[in-house]
């Protein structure tokens, strides 16, 4: 397969612009030179004609008087002008009777052309050869008193006189044309390089950088309108590509996020089914153990045995509470009722205080008395109990509960003044099932996971952040659709 040849832009400019203009200037020089040659030839012929007519009268008088010496002197005087190459006088029969210059070198005295001109009897001129040289001759008839042609005067000039001058003019004209053409050629190439070549090279370099993946580069703006338009369009294309890639990346990130959420929901659903089955299987044996321990307590008076039985029942209650949490974790859906929020929070605070140490932290409630919300009472109470329990266990001395109305709903924040979460733990990890920051044996890792599920069922949002007091703040935001 033969490679197709492609011309560069510079070659196209030279071929389509420079060469036609150069050829046009050459044609103009050729036409001008030809016109000048004709003008010069006409001028030289007119000069010979004037000389011939100027000597016709004195030569005619001298011939009428038979004074050939005067005729010869007149011819010699004409030859001395420098413009005349030769001069001759012919009688009425066409015979040469006097000559000067090159005409003297002729081998014959008769000139057939002169004889023809005598017969015609009018001015005439023609190119001919004399003494082996090409000359231009002009013939002028000489008449006597009666008007009859008595003789013929011939004045000649070298034929080369007509071409030598024009040859010099043509030489200089065509030489100048060639020099100007070369200079124009160089100017066109230099102008192309300055006006187009550099800009095209810069644009090509930018395209090469883009091809190597450097999408941040941009083409420099050119002073030339056309190249500037190309650079602007190219930069616009790069900007569109950047925006498209950013949009694609955003869509990919959103898709990854949605896939992660879907995967988490599927994992949570599977875990919920597993947890529900385990909780049901553990519920019956725990009830049996607690019932028998209670029966033994009633029938036994040994203090040591009673203490051991109370410990057994305490652990059974702890396991029962874990089972209830597992069941709550696996539940979905919400049966909402309109309730006083302050009453629900106070009930949850009372429930938590029974589980705390003898000196629990101070709990401050910033909730309006008329705050009414629409929630699932049992499940939302579980949310409050879990969050208050975590806050009280982490707090140094203070826990706060703050209610706020929002333009599109309401929010409830629970914070503490504890140490907060470690820097190496992501807040979202706290929402994962069975993930806990408490010591081994003191937490199941289900509290915040249960809260998160219940809040999601209420179409709400759970956020974890650092509290102003230094500890952890859990913010619950619910949309307006579940407010009263």
Automatic annotation (TrEMBL):
Catalytic activity: ATP + protein L-histidine = ADP + protein N-phospho-L-histidine
Keyword Transmembrane: yes
Protein EC: 2.7.13.3
InterPro entries, per the entry: HAMP_dom (IPR003660), HATPase_C_sf (IPR036890), HATPase_dom (IPR003594), His_kinase_dom (IPR005467), HisK_dim/P_dom (IPR003661), HisK_dim/P_sf (IPR036097), Sig_transdc_His_kin-like_C (IPR004358)
Domain Histidine kinase: 277-482
Keyword Phosphoprotein attributed: yes
GO MF, any single term: kinase activity
The HAMP domain, residue ranges: 194-246
Keywords: ATP-binding, Kinase, Membrane, Nucleotide-binding, Phosphoprotein, Transferase, Transmembrane, Transmembrane helix, Two-component regulatory system
Subcellular location: Membrane
Parts of the chain that traverse the membrane: 171-192
Enzymatic class: transferase
Entry-linked SUPFAM superfamilies: ATPase domain of HSP90 chaperone/DNA topoisomerase II/histidine kinase, HAMP domain-like, Homodimeric domain of signal transducing histidine kinase
Name the record gives this protein: histidine kinase
Species the sequence originates in: Shewanella electrica
